[in-house]
Amino acid sequence: SVFAKNMTDPKAERTFIAIKPDGVQRGLIGDIIKRFEQKGYKLVAGKLMWAPKELLMNHYKDLADKPFYNGLVAYMASGPVFAMVWEGKAVVATGRKILGATNPLDSAPGTIRGDYCIDVGRNICHGSDAVETAQREIALWFKDDELNDYEFADKKWIYE
Ligand code: IDP
Ligand code: MG
């Protein structure tokens, strides 16, 4: 299966990263892709998608009892998002570091949220918080045949 190799090859770990509607509107798709690319991670899938409310409610179902849940779903449905799958060693945890803390006022400069935003409800990007979450989110947002299995040309220059 698509996920079976996660167990055996650490370089095959995958995470779900999404550029939220504010990130798309503010022209940040290229910059956000660039940060994952230049780190050495491999892009496995990517699409611009105006997500249906049901998908977003499912995506954020663990937050359903939070006071900001309805506003969060409305924000995420306010325009297209750029959904991606990135692959590489420790990409889930490292992806979260590249994004920065959830609240942009706590995000270190040099992170995406630290560099580009201010309010937690307009924090421009999403990243899976654990390997199991990533597997759930990838399956939610992508069909199996949208995930591209290919050999990365740079691989031997990135991994020892
Ligand atoms: P994460 O995106 O860093 O994983 P979560 O706690 O999973 O953070 O929350 C999901 C999203 O919900 C956040 O990225 C943010 O957009 C939004 N959010 C979280 N806390 C608040 C809040 O207190 N007010 C408004 N929106 C929030
Ligand atoms: Mg989260």
Structural summary, described in words:
It contains nine helices and four strands; from the N terminus they run αβααβααβααβαα. It is of the alpha+beta class and 160 residues long. Residues 63, 68, 72, 102, 120-121, 123, 126, 129 line the site of inosine-5'-diphosphate (IDP).
Supply the number of helical segments.
9
> What class would the helix/strand composition place it in?
alpha+beta
Envelope shape: globular
End-to-end C-alpha gap: 26 Å
Strand order of the largest sheet: 2-3-1-4
The SSE order reads: HEHHEHHEHHEHH
Helix content: 40-55%
Give the low-confidence spans: none
Q: Calculate Rg over CA atoms.
A: 15 Å
Let me know the number of strands: 4
Mean pLDDT: 95
Largest sheet descriptor: 4 strands, antiparallel
Key features?
4 strands, 9 helices, binds magnesium ion, kinase, 160 residues, single chain, binds inosine-5'-diphosphate, alpha+beta, 4-stranded antiparallel beta sheet
Short description, anyone?
With 160 residues, the chain is an alpha+beta fold. 41% of the residues lie in helices and 15% in strands.
SSE blueprint and pairings:
Elements: H1 4-8, E1 14-19, H2 21-25, H3 29-39, E2 42-49, H4 53-59, H5 69-76, E3 81-87, H6 91-99, H7 112-116, E4 125-127, H8 131-141, H9 155-158
Antiparallel strand pairs: 1-3, 1-4, 2-3
Bound molecules: inosine-5'-diphosphate and magnesium ion (MG).
Inosine-5'-diphosphate binds at residues 63, 68, 72, 102, 120-121, 123, 126, 129.
